[in-house]
Amino acid sequence: MLRVAIQMDPVEAVNIESDTTWLMMTTAQDRGHAQWVYDFRTLALEDGRLFCRARPVTLRQTQGDHVTLGEEVKLDLGEDVDVILMRQDPPFDMAYVTSTYLLETVHPKTLVVNDPAEVRSAPEKLLVTHFPGLTPPTLISSDPVALVDFHERHGDVVLKPLHGAAGSGVVKLKAGDPNLEALVEIHMTGSRDPLVIQKFIPAVSKGDKRIILIDGEPVGAINRIPAKDQVRSNLRVGGTAAPVELTDRDREICAAIGPTLKARGLIFVGIDVIGDYLTEINVTSPTGAQQLKRFTGVDASALMWDVIEKRRAG
What pLDDT does 238 receive? Predict the structure, then answer.
C-alpha cells in the first residue's frame, strides 16, 4: 500500500465522467492505496520540513455524491506520504511556480509526479522549442515589432498567451489582419508574460490530437475536433473527443521527445499534435485519460501507477 497525497483543485467539483485526476484516484483506491487531498495554498515549509493540511478521501462513481472527505490532518510530506500527485490546474503563475519550489524540498524521497523542478522548467509552450523540426514556425516574444514581423512573414497565424491553458485566449489572425497590435496591447495591460505566435495549421479542422506518454512511451491518443468555424479544439471550450490511431509521424515525434521526458522525470505527459506538427508538451495536469480508456480500453492511469509502484518498491 502506498500513501498518496494529491495536490489538486476541489475534488467535490470534478466531473467524474471526464476528469483524468479522478481516474488516477479511483485507480489508486482500487489498488488499496491510502489517499489525501490538499490545496497547494496550505503548503507550509518550516525548519526544512514541508507540511500541508489534508483530508483523507473515499471515492464513489456517483456524480454529486462521489466523495467522502475525512477530518483534516496535518501531513509531513517528507515523512507521512510516499507519493505526491501534482494535479492542480494552471494558471502557471508565480503561485504555481512557488509550489514547485516547495515540493522540490521533499522530492525524490517522496516521489512527486511529475518532478516539480522539471514541471517548473518545462512550460507547455516552451518545452517544444527544444525539438526543432517537429514544430510549426513559432515565435515567443513580448515585442510588438517582432510579433508583427512574424505575422507579415507567415500569413495566417494563431496568437496565444505563453502560460495560458485549456484554449484560453487563443485567437486566429488571417494574413493582413490589422488587429494584432491592439491584441498585444490588451494582453500587456494585464500581463508581463510573452505571447506565442505560430503559423496556422489548416489541419486543425480535422482535429488536435492528444497523445498520452507514460514514462516517455506513447500509450495512445484521442482526437479533439473543434466546433464548426472554431480554431480551439480543447474539450473545455467545446471541442469533441473522438477515437484516433497513432500515425507514423506521431510515433516519430514521440520517439524524438520520449527519452527527454523520461530523463526529466515527467511520468505522465500529454502532447498535442496537429497534422504533422508538435504544438505543445503538457506536463502540469494533462487530461484525456478517461476518453482514451473509453475509446480504446487503454488505461493510462493504471500504466502510470505501474511505473510509480515499481519506483517506490525499488
Answer: 55
Cα 269 from Cα 284, distance rounded (Å)? 8
Taking only Cα atoms into account, the Rg of the chain, rounded to an integer number of angstroms, comes to 20
For the entire predicted model, the pTM comes to: 0.92
Residue whose entry in the numeric block shows the C-alpha cell 487530461: 287
Residue in 160, 209, 264, 293 annotated catalytic:
160
Please say if 236 is a catalytic residue.
Answer: no
Note if 232 is an active site residue. Answer: yes
* Structural element, H or E, at residue 236: none
Is 310 in the active site? no
Summarize pLDDT for 28-78 with one digit per residue, the tens: 999 999 999 999 999 999 999 999 999 999 999 999 999 999 999 999 999
The segments of the chain whose pLDDT lies below 50 read none
User: Is residue 210 annotated as part of the catalytic site, yes or no?
Assistant: yes
Burial (CB count within 10 angstroms: exposed 0-12, middle 13-18, buried 19+), residue 30: exposed
| 125 a catalytic residue | yes
CA dist 166 and 155 (Å) reads: 25
User: 93-123 burial by CB neighbour count: b if 16+ within 10 A, else e?
Assistant: eeebeebbebbbbbbeebbbbbbbbbbbebb
For 14, 22, 198, 232, 241, the CA distances from 289, given in Å and listed in that order, are 14, 10, 27, 20, 11
Catalytic residue status for 199: no
Residue 50, C-alpha cell as written in the block: 514541508
